[in-house]
User: Fold this.
Amino acid sequence: MNLLVKGGRVIDPASGRDAVGDVAIADGRIVAALAGKPERVIDAQGLVVAPGLIDLAARLREPGYEYKATLESEMDAAVAGGVTSLACPPDTDPPLDEPGLVDMLRRRALALKRARVYPVGALTVKLEGRQLTEMAELAEAGCVAFSQANAAIADTQVLWRALQYAATFGFPVWLRAEDLWLAQGGVAHDGEVATRLGLAGIPAFAETVALATLLELVRATGARVHVCRISSAAGVAMLRRARHDGLPLTCDVGVHHVHLSDRDLGYFDAQCRLEPPLRSPRDRDALGAGLADGTIDCIVSDHTPVDEDGKHLPFAEAEPGATGLELLLPLALKWGVQAKLTLAQTLARVTSAPARILGVDAGRIAPGAPADLVLFDPQAPYRVSAQALKSQGKNTPFLGLELAGRVRATLVAGRVVYEA
Amino acid sequence: MPRNPQLNANGELQHLLSIEGLPRALLVQILDTAESFAGVTERDIKKVPLLRGKSVFNLFFEGSTRTRTTFEIAAKRLSADVINLNVAASSTAKGESLLDTVANLSAMQADIFVVRHGSSGAPYLVAQHVKPHEHVINAGDGRHAHPTQGLLDLYTIRHYKKDFSRLTVAVVGDVLHSRVARSLIHGLTTLGAPEVRVIGPQTLIPAGAAALGVRVCHSMNEGLKDADVVVMLRLQNERMSGALLPSAQEFNKQYGLSAEKLALARPDAIVMHPGPMNRGVEIDSNVADGPHSVILPQVTFGIAVRMAVMSMVAGGG
Amino acid sequence: MAALPDAEALCAQLALELRARIGPASAMVGIHTGGAWVAARLHAALGLAQPLGLLDIAFYRDDYDRKGLARDPKRSKIPFDVAGKDLLLVDDVLYTGRTVRAAVNELFDYGRPASIALVVLAERDGRQLPICAQHAGARIDVPAGMRLRLKRDDRGKLSLELERAA
Assistant:
């Protein structure tokens, strides 16, 4: 189908282009110009036309957690949030440690014809940190990388061997840096707030101790590692030094962690129960600075739908996680404004940068690229409410607040998959 | 930050969840009201009709005979009806959530919920979900707060020492896990005690302790010097198995309150303990039973304080 | 409207009146705050054997559900055995009678007196309960919307005043 997206402010973070113009689409790809008349013209006047967002961590809750959310509802949420490609972590039930499960997930997602889904496979069987998964088989079934989600590997010998094995095939490994023992039992950042609230704390050095181990193993094995959900100022500093030393790492930060700190826990607000925990304001600011100076490559939503019952519990018993697919864009924009970046620079953190890490041809607007686009109004108010959210997860610390940035249309492979 | 859930729009106490965040005037009012109730306990008829017709539900998810009993006595002295919920045997053990339990009790016309729970913050969750005429009193939540204990400790200190503005108070032992310590510290700093110290090994002092406004000491020699009030915290057996302490004996030698160590404090210092005591661990018997100890009066004061708290939250339109 | 009577003079007048009723079993109880002031005057003037008792009715009021607990309850103290005594219950102003009702209930929680006689410095219209004073210093007409109060200055001198009702 031929489409013309007319008169929008076209921003391509990869090239830096930011100008009013048209985007022509034919057969699912962006073309320099259309051969004939377009079958449909989308009026993008007053809107930003950008590459569709790429989210490296969004839980779709299938298989296994269908009472929390389904593929349908979460895919609706993705495209309503302007997300055209997403990677889903392996912590489903059962975890994505078998090719059959991965295959089924990919097929289901394809059939829904919404965003592109890239499964991340389990690094160890059942995510238990003992036995390696059949990574080659899983890669063939469609896994783009391997991860432990939030389940740290306690046995450093296993971690070493897993990285070595992945490195053999050049498979990327996406890992959170957290020492299992130092974090054990903790539910909040080990600082002033946790002390006052009487919550068991996870010290920042639970992250840096694990990060130090990970960096050494990367040096030793040459594995392609992506560090997920960095959470502390000290962690950012370590990463900065490592990248300066030339270590080929990439890194992401959860979108909630550049906005919130442990102060936002207030009176035990379970919506702020997250993994990793929200740390001090100093940590939050360092994460923002790291994202701005490129130490951290990109922002992810870490979308985790949790049903009401899971949050209506005392803080330590509540399920961690926040809904995020539909808030990724407005929250990223908010951060960009605070960091005094241009729109193109801000959008790079959710388009071209994650595309590079994912290793897919996406996140750019150029002839030949897939026609995955988001059309949005950066000024339009978006009030966060249970009704407005398409995701089944209504769990967010931003409930009731007003953000700026509304998606008006989302296209995947040249098809309109969402229209406001 | 949302409004302090303990106070209604007029600044009146409608729940007691934590001493933190209560204005100084309100704390003083609670202590003064407790004084009036102390007079009631000296009469033959130890009851007043204030809460007649009202129901107090003791919702204890963590076992405690002594705290529950004092709440029960206090409620009965106010002429309230008291219902004790043995949670272990109840539907909650069968998997009913905290909020469902509360909703079911609410349907049985409760006025006051006295809640003790193992998870910090649980009473806040309850307070968010009760009806406007229902009131929540926190009888201890996880490590977070034990406000009525903190209040009775403050009452005890005021009874013997009168003026907070000149006091040095030492809190000794497992501060990390202690809701009693946290509540007392908040109360002391609000009432203007100039020097509050915590004493214990690094493993038992929380990371953010200094932010609570206390001076951290790791030795009794340093911490007890010239103290007016010494508060000993209970040391639980689990601490030895959690790699926090090697043994009760070593703890007793380094941090247990003996007569020798007490001599470092002021000659007229008082010794307090929230109970129950581990004699020979955190406190030696001769000190617990000695002339400086006010441990038994603490218990009596606890009834008057709880009567004051219940009558202050439950009144008014 | 006539001027209000002198409170100190009323105290003296009441003391004279009460002298006739004092017996071996007599004791006096004043109701905080105004009644306590008046009772202190009377107790001193009459030279009673039993020490003065003081009552704070905060815990016996009937308006707890509407208004909550009074801000600054004083401590009731009856330093004698109530049982078998002829009590003189003293208050400053008798109006609706609810304060007296609460005080009598509270007294009975201390024991069983032989009798209770009510002594007030002033009484006004507006009884809501079947209560009357055995001895009243003066009967005062209070205009609508006003309240009769007993005040005590820095030197301890008592005086009656009218003020706007809340």
About this structure: The two ends of chain A are 21 Å apart (CA to CA). Chain A touches chain B through 24 residues (CB under 8 Å). The mean pLDDT of chain A is 96. Chain A has 13 helices and 18 strands.
